[in-house]
Amino acid sequence: MSVMYTEVTTAMKGRTIRRHFRESIKSLGRNGWMTFASISAVTVTLLLVGVFTIIMMNLNKVADDIEKDVEIKVLIDIIADPAEAKAAEATLMEEIKNMPGVAEVVYSSKEQELDLLVDSYGEDLSLFEQSNPLNNVLYVKASEPQQTVDIAKKIEKFDNISEVKYGEEKVGKLFSFLNTSRNVGLVLILGLLFTAIFLISNTIRITIIARRDEIEIMKLVGATNSFVRIPFVIEGMWLGVLGSIVPMTVVSIVYANIFKIIEPKLNGELLQLLDVTPLLYQVNALILVMGILIGVWGSFMSVRKFLKV
Amino acid sequence: MIQMNNVVKKYPNGVVAANGISVDIKKGEFVYVVGPSGAGKSTFIKLMYREEKPTSGDVVIAGMNLSSLKNRQVPHLRRQLGVVFQDFKLLPRLNVYENIAFALEVIEENPKEIRKRVMEVLDLVGLKHKVRMFPNELSGGEQQRVSIARSIVNMPKVVIADEPTGNLDPETSWEIMNIFEEINARGTTIVMATHNREIVNTIRKRVIAIEGGLIVRDVYGGDYGYEG
Questions:
Q1: Per-residue confidence of chain A (309 residues) as pLDDT tens digits?
Q2: Where do the ABC transporter domain residues begin and end (chain B) (predicted)?
Q3: Would the CB atoms of A8 and B89 count as touching at under 8 Å?
Q4: Closest approach of B126 to chain A, Cα-based (Å)
Q5: Based on the structure, what is the number of domains in chain A?
């Protein structure tokens, strides 16, 4: 008798794959209520994932837009002697330009400033052209928006500065709001993810128990381990896929409508929503992939624990 | 075909079910395994299809050393064996044909071959006319015949039977024994644990008696040796 330690590793045949799919679908129906509970859990989880993702992506866009717009306005002291003033301004500009983290410095004379005011508030202000009360101004942009505050504080210490203005409060609050909501959302979603995975692994466990005899016979007649396991993993995948249908639909319809209603009202403003495409494609893909991952992971946990093959 | 060399099996609860068993069963033999309940018969049987792993010692079946066999190689061993149980272990939702074909489907045999072989073994066990019936429509003897058919449909070298007549009336038991003899006559090694003294004493074969995890008697053409 020849010694044969070969493993049974036949490549999976098409008919076997079809069999696995058939079995997995049959058992979805057989465990009706557990299937329903698992799919519901996945649905709730993914719905929140979808809504949260869309909100976060839009908030990030708003933050980006605002960040890009954040600049430091440096009001230069009024110096009587024009030559002296010019020299002082040139030094100041040079000093600021050489600071680390400064991307750009733009000079704007008090006449230009007044023009800006006249543009915004009307011709009435042109009275001031006779005796302009404004300062000459330097507009400074940081290369990293987060550095804005630091740079502004350093500039304040320079000579010949009358005032430094930046959207200090606005920027800080926006960043901390974004971080907080991101963290709260993540914790919420993690909790839901575990619930969904737990429910799926329970459903699969029930399937495994229901098919105990079948599994025993399969093992006795020499079915490979993967042959025994695969239908359960596919069943888990179905739970995930079925659970992602409602979230994908709801998220798509709701966002498309919100976009349709709100976008025209925001026209021309700084704040803008992300376009429906590609956002919804990305979010739907995320929902589907997460559904499949939740399902497969949930069933893996059960298969490993309850299926000693 | 089957060699055991000083096999010890100690269960986690401390029970020693095999306490140094050595045996050599040749190809084509028909062996009864007898002994009182709890003497280690079932363990002896389970060690052969690697339902249990020996604590120490070697079990070699059809050239495979089960002590060093990895879990993923077990399916290969099982395809060389047929196993028959007292309680038949048929799947109630499948009919006779499907129950037997199941054994070949899960090892991914091709459908033509499955059909041919299932009809062959159904012929051998005399159940061709009940091929579409479900287990609950069959008598105990018929169910056991289906389970025997399933055990031999993948053409194993060894059939291991754990009290195959334990749930059957005497007359039916004889029919089942005829089938086992027929299978044996075709060259398949048979190892059968049994409590049926009449069968052992009538159809004389090699008898291995196990008591307290040890082989206490091993006689060709021996008798049952215990009081009924």
A1: 444 455 555 556 788 888 888 888 888 887 778 788 889 888 988 998 898 888 888 887 877 777 677 778 888 888 878 888 888 888 888 888 888 888 888 888 888 888 887 877 777 777 777 778 888 888 888 887 777 778 888 888 888 888 888 766 666 777 787 788 878 878 888 888 888 888 888 888 887 887 788 888 888 888 888 888 898 899 899 999 999 999 999 999 999 999 888 888 776 566 778 888 889 999 999 999 999 998 898 888 888 877 775
A2: 2-227
A3: no
A4: 22
A5: 2
Structural domain that includes position A185: 14-66+172-306
Q: B69 to chain A: which residues are within 8 Å by CB?
A: 5
The answer to whether B108 contacts A10, with C-beta atoms less than 8 Å apart, is: yes
Residue given tokens 């979230």 in the structure block: A247
What is the nearest CA distance from A239 to chain B, expressed in angstroms?
Answer: 24
**B103 and A CB contact within 8 Å:** yes
**Residues of chain B contacting A225 with CB distance shorter than 8 Å:** 71-72, 75
Q: Is A221 in contact with B102 (Cβ distance < 8 A)? A: yes
The string of pLDDT tens digits covering residues B97-150 is 999 999 998 888 888 999 999 999 999 999 999 999 999 999 999 999 999 999
**Residue from B62, B46, B34, B77 nearest B209 by CA:** B34
Q: What is the 3-state secondary structure (H, E, C) of A242-262?
A: HHHHHHHHHHHHHHHHHHHHH
Question: Using the beta-carbon criterion (under 8 Å), do A8 and B49 form an inter-chain contact?
Answer: no
Domains and CATH numbers, chain B: 1-80+198-228 (3.40.50.300)
- Mutate: best of A15, A26, A221, partner B, most B CBs <10 A: A221
Q: Where are the beta strands (DSSP E) in chain B?
A: 2-10, 16-25, 30-34, 56-61, 64-65, 81-85, 158-162, 189-193, 206-211, 214-219
Report CA-CA distances (Å) from B95 to A99, A265, B99: 85, 68, 6
In a domain, A8, yes or no: no
B227 pLDDT more than 80 = no
Task: Note the residue count of chain B.
Answer: 228
Token pair 């908030």 is at which residue? A59
- Are residues A176 and A240 located together in one domain of the fold? yes
What ipTM was estimated for this complex? 0.85
Answer whether B107 sits within 8 Å of A5, measured CB to CB.
no
Asked if residue A54 belongs to a domain, the reply is yes
Pair A31, A96 in one domain:
no
Is B89 an interface residue toward A (CB < 8 Å)?
yes
Phi (first) and psi of residue B10, to 5 degrees: -115, 125
- Contact between B106 and A223 using a beta-carbon 8 Å cutoff: yes
